[in-house]
Amino acid sequence: MVLYRSVSLLSKLKNTRAVRQPNLANSVRWLQIQTSSDLDIRSHLKELIPEQQERLKKIKSEYGKVQLGNITVDMVLGGMRGMTGLLWETSLLDPDEGIRFRGLSIPECQKVLPAAKSGGEPLPEGLLWLLLTGKVPTKEQVDALSAELRSRATIPDHVYKAIDALPITAHPMTQFTTGVLALQVQSEFSKAYENGIHKSKYWEPTFEDSLSLIAQLPAVAAYVYRRMYKNGEIIPVDDSLDYGANFAHMLGFNSPDMQELMRLYVTIHSDHEGGNVSAHTGHLVASALSDPYLSFAAALNGLAGPLHGLANQEVLLWIKSVVDECGENISKDQLKDYVWKTLNSGKVVPGFGHGVLRKTDPRYMCQREFALKHLPDDPLFQLVSKLYDVVPPILTELGKVKNPWPNVDAHSGVLLNYYGLTEARYYTVLFGVSRAIGICSQLIWDRALGLPLERPKSVTMEWLENHCKKSA
Q: Is 229 exposed, middle or buried (0-12, 13-18, 19+ CB in 10 A)?
């Protein structure tokens, strides 16, 4: 996490103040608020990178032998759950507080990041600036970054041809990942590496690839959607719109509220520290010096799993199954019976529980606040609200679930469905577009800091048995 001592004015706030945040060790973090007129994010990175390179060297030299904890057999057998083993600068997940982007919680991001309109949801471009630099940008800087992303958003024809080679019945994530892989032929990092670029400069073509990839993803994702569900009628980029609004526009949704929802959706799904499957996969593949396109395609394949990003699809399908069987006005007692029916059939209630969080996901709560503001009478939203009351006590009663509370996936599908994006199979693609902002931001820093090839040690069950017998 980048530390900054200097504090300047935030133009959106009338009073002069700094944003003060405690970190997990209860120390004080001062987050710098930008007032610089420099609108080029690359120039900011050029200034920041040498400072952070020196910071990493100092940590290695002074604290390299400090132990971070003990690894148990349960951790080895449990999917490395709880092991501290990755450096991930852009966000940090606390089991009780939830995600913080460069030290800022989601409500704080909603308050200080520039928005398209007064009191509106933060612009995803602003979060991208924050993740890359550790600084809250001005509206002018966000507008400049938005314009740069639009300038990079052109899609080569061969990408569409690669997607069109697939059956239209192929899962949207299969088509989306194919499009990302087809973009790889334009990789600046791949070309620079072949030409013998010095490793100290790796971050520069990585930056170019990452910004281009982030810029192009909404158009590729929208193409998949329009191909599958809208008879292939493609909607071009609108140069007057920001990143989130343009994504909604290319999908075919132009209501101001849907544009606001897409800004919120992309922002809150962008990053969730480095240990989740998609982020870890992207980091792992990139550690072999695979370029951002190859690395992010691998991340998408992890995101497509039902225990990760595909869960947002499963939630809405399950909620609709409740309505189909019991009707929209289901009572809480009826809902309890349906939940038990689901659990007794050997299935899980999708959208509840989390690998790290031990309280309600803040991403769920900000979506709930959006729903209370924009669609309080929607029957599916009211059903989601009932589930919030019904499911946690049942999961607690089972005694097998460490976190019975709803996560981000429990709410997103209902919001999208309300505004007309009803195709649940497509929802994970939206997640993928969003997650690129976090994964690519960290990948740039991976290259800048010279992080090494990831290669953990594995052991056999026989090794574990022998080791534990000797330790007894």
A: middle
Q: Measured between alpha carbons, how far is residue 165 from residues 169, 170, 182, 226, 293 in Å?
A: 11, 10, 12, 15, 20
Region for 167 from its dihedrals, namely left if φ exceeds 0, alpha if ψ lies in -120 to 50, beta otherwise: beta
- How many angstroms from the chain centroid is the CA of residue 348? 23
In order of 209, 246, 289, 455, the CA distances from 100 in angstroms are: 26, 26, 28, 27
Place of tokens 């192929």: 170
Choosing from 354, 361, 411, 446, the catalytic residue is 354
354 is catalytic: yes
Cα separations in angstroms, 427 against 21, 276, 294, 422: 33, 18, 22, 9
Q: How do residues 295-345 score in pLDDT, each as one tens digit? A: 999 999 999 998 888 888 888 888 989 989 888 888 999 999 999 999 999
Confidence tier at 6 by pLDDT (50, 70, 90): very low
Q: Catalytic residue at 409?
A: yes
Confidence grade of residue 9 (pLDDT, cut at 50, 70, 90): very low
The closest of 224, 286, 284 to 432, measured between CA atoms, is: 224
Rounded to two decimals, the pTM is 0.89
Helix pair angle (243-251, 203-229), 10° resolution: 30
Q: What is the DSSP letter of 175?
A: H
The active-site residue out of 308, 361, 411, 446 is 308
Looking at the predicted structure, is the pLDDT value of residue 33 above 80?
no
Q: Whole-angstrom distance between the N-terminal and C-terminal Cα of the chain?
A: 40
Which residue pairs, CB below 8 angstroms and at least 24 apart, start in 155-159? 155/183, 155/216, 155/219, 155/220, 155/223, 156/182, 156/183, 156/185, 156/186, 158/182, 158/185, 159/183, 159/220
DSSP string, 67-86: ------HHHHHTTTTT----
From the list 269, 409, 411, 446, the catalytic residue is 409
> Is the separation of the CB atoms in 358 and 403 below 8 Å?
yes
> Cβ(349)–Cβ(342) under 8 Å?
yes
